[in-house]
Amino acid sequence: MEDTELENEQLRLQKISEISDLLIAKLMQSALPQIYYPYMAGMILEEPPNNARDLLELIGEYVKNGNKVSITLVSELCEQVYKELLNKKLITIENKLSFVAEKLSAPVILNKVNLKGEGTGGSVDAFLGQEKFQFLDENKVTDMIKSKKREKEDKKQREAYEHHLIELDHIRKKLPPTVVQHNKELVKGGKDLLIDNLTLIVGGRNLLENTQFKLTWGRKYGLIGRNGIGKTSLLSALARGDFDKFTKGFQILLVEQEVDGEDKSALDTVLECDRRRAELLAEEKKLNLELTETAGMRLLEIYKELEEIDAYGAESRACTILNGLGFTNEMLALPTSLLSGGWRMRVAIARALFVQPEILLLDEPTNHLDLDAVMWLEDYLVNWKNIVVVVSHAREFLNVVCSDIVHFFNLKLVYYRGNYDSFEKTRKQDYIQQSKQLESQKMKVDHMQSFIDKFRYNAKRASLVQSRIKALQKMELVEEIIEDPSCIFIFPAPDKLRPPLLKVEDGLFGYSETKLLLKNLNFGIDMESRIAIVGANGVGKSTFLKLLMGELSLLEGSQFRHNRLRVSLFTQHHIEQLDLVLSPLEQIAHSYPGSSSESYRSHLGSFGVTGNMALRPMYLLSGGQKSRVAFALSVWKNPHILILDEPTNHLDIDAVNALIIALNNFTGGVLIVSHDQHMVASVCECIWYIRDQKLKKFNGDFEDYRRALATGKL
User: Fold this and answer.
1) How much is the average pLDDT of 13-33?
2) Which of 8, 79, 246, 414 could hold 407 in an S-S bridge, CB 3.0 to 4.6 Å?
3) Pairing label, strands 359-363, 252-255
4) Are 669 and 529 in contact (CB under 8 A)?
């Protein structure tokens, strides 16, 4: 039995290989990655198409590859492929409906025949005198086949997603625990980390290839690069110590996800990182109940060790870190199970800062922090004595914290001294210089080649020709300039509405009269507005946005809303609601049915979701790529006003710049809740802040607001 199953599996794999080869030969115009052909071959083998139209339904979107191939040519290619599949007997067609002539058992008088719906209801064949088969309408049959196919594909996708989650969990379990290590030994060869010829492969895809990775003691590195390029994968691999030539002896901690919600308080969750302290305090408590000489001797040893590891100052240090990250004294005692994901993320950051590893890896640490906490973290990291590697989209944060920038690009890591602004300036100068060198060399090569071609067969000039040929061969060519692919956001242009569009007057808002959030609320927005809303976490910014959206109502006061007004709200909640098993194309078609595939693809393309990205399951996309999908979904209905709650979270710096350009070109109103100084300064014309249950307009720009916040002059 096992031999038969093995033979069947071998036969199946052989057919998939043959079908894949056929697809590669016939579908060259699609320029699909090689990995797609075996996948399509498996689909064809599992659900053999009955005709070329079925094959078009099955693989048509892949063949189009983001409109690289016209629908007319796609149809022709599918017809060619279908014929080849039949000719080479790579598929077999079963269960095809057919009519067979049968001999009548007796003569039939037509005017005495009961037609369907007359007496018999069509259950007995009037000609053959037997029960007849009820044929379904062709469209119904097609719909049933499509539905069954979709169910199978959906099951496959969800199984693949579950497998993906299991793999991620397995990888996370390999990360080192967040534990204080006392009496650390000095790393041999100094405290710098150097890995030569580093190659990083994830999921069969090369992310880095023969590049150098180096970290110098005491320096702070900003790791930058496009969304999905592999920055998080690199940090995770570093934390796990996956590299063969990895220098041992470093304690490396990666902060990438929130702590689990438990009954322990935020303070205890941080303190438990010092396991040795906890063990000694527990032993001390137990020995204090004994009145023996041996117990007394052991207590003296415990007190000495507690002193050496600064156990009595640990709680003060933990409180300082948590307070700096925004925790009030009341919140310190709250169980982490009662905290939101953003606050549990702060606990995770606090644990890592408390442990003080030799190398601290931070992946988008500012995403869940308000401006107060961001400024505190900036100061803390500037004074950090060990190595820091941070992935962040926040330009100002990188400018304040980083001493070096590492550019992750084209399978390499390129190092630049200085902060992000310095990197941009240096890279621009390098680009200009390299462009000049490339142009100069091209002119020189063209001139020499022209001489060679002209006098190649001239005996008198033979020596000169040979010398130029040798010179060309020895010439060290300037590298071709490779640019990052462009990242775009294009918001649809709404029709014009005359103001006022949305305003609140003399508003009183809260969940009840005893739990008020905002008093004396007076605020308005129209299509010319460019407004930033700022304030500490928990003061009611997100709740105020829900009020503007009409999801919540005022306790007192009035709210006006234009009867034709369309408002779009983008929050991280939109990203969390994405069905990660679906592709972006499937998600938008599911959310807003009724439009053509071309319309969906065009709209997604306006937010940089193009080509194969639109067809991949979203669990394989990076956080920034999922953000772009969420942006596309949130503005499908062409809003007059965009309300964006922390829109830069998860986007890379280039995507943030693209978003800024798109917002400045948008012809509707914009309201942003953000701590990103560069975003606010580049887009918003006025700042409103929430403090002491009031929404007030700030007289000044974001830099003035930041200064006022730091000096307590708000």
Assistant:
1) 83
2) 414
3) parallel
4) yes
pLDDT of residue 98: 41
Report strand pairing: 193-202 vs 359-363: unpaired
User: Are 604 and 626 within 8 A, CB to CB?
Assistant: no
Q: Cα–Cα–Cα angle for 249, 230, 199, nearest 5°?
A: 55
Distances (CA, A) of 152 to 46, 100, 146, 582, 589: 10, 32, 10, 14, 19
At 493, the amino acid letter reads A
pLDDT in tens, 170-228: 677 777 888 888 876 554 445 788 888 888 888 778 899 999 999 999 999 999 998 88
Q: Which amino acid is at 7?
A: E
CA distances to 7, 8, 9, 90 from 4, in Å: 5, 6, 9, 20
Q: At what angle do helices 623-634 and 597-605 cross, to 10 degrees?
A: 120
**Residue closest to 220 by CA, chosen among 40, 391, 469:** 391
Question: Which of the residue ranges 110-124, 319-333, 529-543 would you say has the lowest mean pLDDT?
Answer: 110-124
Phi-psi category of residue 554: left, alpha or beta, with phi > 0 → left and psi -120 to 50 → alpha:
beta
Per-residue tokens: 561: 């809303």
Q: How confident is the model at residue 94 (pLDDT cuts 50, 70, 90)?
A: low
Tokens at 704, concatenated: 């003035």
Q: Following DSSP, what letter does each residue of 495-559 receive, concatenated?
A: PP-PSP-EEEEEEEEEEETTEEEEEEEEEEE-TT-EEEEE--TTSSHHHHHHHHHTSS--SEEEE
Cis peptide preceding 500, ω within 30 of 0: yes
Phi, psi of 627 (to 5 degrees): -60, -40
Which tokens is 393 given?
């989209």
Residue 398 makes CB contacts below 8 A (sequence gap 6+) with 222, 224, 390, 392, 405, 419, 420
Give CA–CA dist 595/598, Å, rounded: 8
Q: Which ranges constitute the DSSP H helices of 27-35?
A: none
Q: What is the pLDDT of residue 143?
A: 60
pLDDT category, 1, cuts 50, 70, 90?
A: very low
The average pLDDT across 629-650 equals 92
Work out the pLDDT band at 122, boundaries 50, 70, 90: very low
Q: Please work out, in degrees rounded to the nearest 5, the angle formed at the alpha carbon of residue 82 by the alpha carbons of 61 and 613.
A: 15
Rounded distance, CA 127 to CA 114, Å? 10
- Amino acid (one-letter) located at 689: Y
Q: Which residues are registered as beta bridge partners of 131?
A: 124
pLDDT on residue 495: 93
The token duo for 391 is 């992935």
Q: Which residues lie below 8 Å from residue 169, measured CB to CB, with a gap of 6+? A: none
